[in-house]
Amino acid sequence: MILLVVVASILIAGVTVYQYKEQSEDYHSDRLERKEEQVQQSVEYVLKKTTYPVTTKNLGLIFNEEIYQIANVQNQRLNIYDLEGQLIKSSRAKFEVDSIANCLSPSILSLLETSPTKRFVDQKALAGDNYKASYTYINDKRFKPIGILNLPYYEDDSFNNMELREFLMRLGGVYFLMLLIAIGLAYFISTYITRSLQTISDMLGKTDLRKRNQKILIDNPSEEIEKLVTSYNAMIDELEQSAVKLARSEREQAWREMAKQVAHEIKNPLTPMRLTVQSFERKFDPQDPNIETKIGEFSKTLIQQIDTMSSIASAFSNFAEMPAQQNETLNIVEIVRLALDIFNEDYIHFISEEEEIITKLDRTQLIRVVTNLVKNAIQAVPEVDAPQIVVSVSSDGDFAKICVADNGIGIEEGFKEKIFEPKFTTKSSGMGLGLGMVKNIVETYKGHISFTSKPGKGTVFSVKFPLVK
């Protein structure tokens, strides 16, 4: 109600000002046209009565005295210019002639010549007042232009402005009174309507899922309030039932997520163990002179993966982070090269221009990061004619940088923002926990992971860990 009064007062004031302005403009335009028509008639009368030849050169002689008579009779100043824009005669006194433009600008002459009505009105603002100047041709008896008639016109809006101020003051007083009335009515009406709603509002503010909520009891409520109270009390009953179901569902969901995570974590070391056993089975040769070294490497790889599974099981049983962090000073080049030994694909290449880059990480978690990224790269290149996976290790300022690049199918634009979300996957198998786990491990060690990808051309994952200073 208050807003309606305020908006109405502003709109009416705006419309009033606009209306006064339009009326003033129309009045001055009509008045200038009337003045111009009267002056032209006087000019034509002088041209008919003159004994001088009606030419441009004689305009000064023809209107030598008559221009002052026309100005006095019409109460309008006027100036006469030749067709080149040079001042010939002015109705002003001689000491005022210096303030008049002795030559018209080429733009005015051009606009006057190209005007269909052979009339041009120039509008300007001088000293805070609006100023208009009309230009028309003076024609001889054959309607041939011989000069230019200029009528300066100053718009005096002082009377209209005074009327407008008085009207707005009266209108403002009326609307101020209406505003006070509207405030009073709004206060009493809102108080009457909301007296029961305040009780309901207080109870809604106290509603809490974690405890038992009280129902609303109001004596002699109106029909609408009674319906609202009944709906609220019914909602409280349903809310208590939903809270019990929600708590049970959350516990079940938490166990399901834990089971998925544990299954995924156990599956990670099982895959490289299987690959290692298969590789050893194919390449085992009892007669190989280096058989003891290979068996040692084989055993070392299996022991590492078994240690990983053991740490996962320990973490799950203790409800701790998986797996527990055992920070140690590592040569990241050596660990990454060791992690790649479990893969048999001949298109996987390792590059490092440095033999030693020291970081402080958990050996098992670093291997898990590398194996997860490489496994993802392998799954991205099954349909490529010449698959290529390049794993590189380098120093990048204060960080050790690991890059895993492939020329696989790439990642679509719509999937890039979700690629690290748990349970998000674009593959037909798997639970989508791998990259989310990798991101958690990297951020735990104050590192960061990023990637660039072009669909159909490949993907590059970059992992950075702080160097040991």
From TrEMBL:
Residues 222-252 form a coiled coil. It comes from the Bacteria. PROSITE patterns: HIS_KIN. The chain crosses the membrane at residues 167-189. SUPFAM superfamilies: ATPase domain of HSP90 chaperone/DNA topoisomerase II/histidine kinase, Homodimeric domain of signal transducing histidine kinase. The keyword Membrane applies. InterPro entries: HATPase_C_sf, HATPase_dom, His_kinase_dom, HisK_dim/P_dom, HisK_dim/P_sf, Sig_transdc_His_kin-like_C. It is an enzyme of class 2 (transferase). Residues 261-469 form the Histidine kinase domain. Keywords: ATP-binding, Coiled coil, Kinase, Membrane, Nucleotide-binding, Phosphoprotein, Transferase, Transmembrane, Transmembrane helix, Two-component regulatory system. The keyword Hydrolase does not apply. GO terms for molecular function: ATP binding; phosphorelay sensor kinase activity. Its EC number is 2.7.13.3. It catalyses: ATP + protein L-histidine = ADP + protein N-phospho-L-histidine. This is histidine kinase. The lineage of its organism: Bacteria, Pseudomonadati, Bacteroidota, Flavobacteriia, Flavobacteriales.
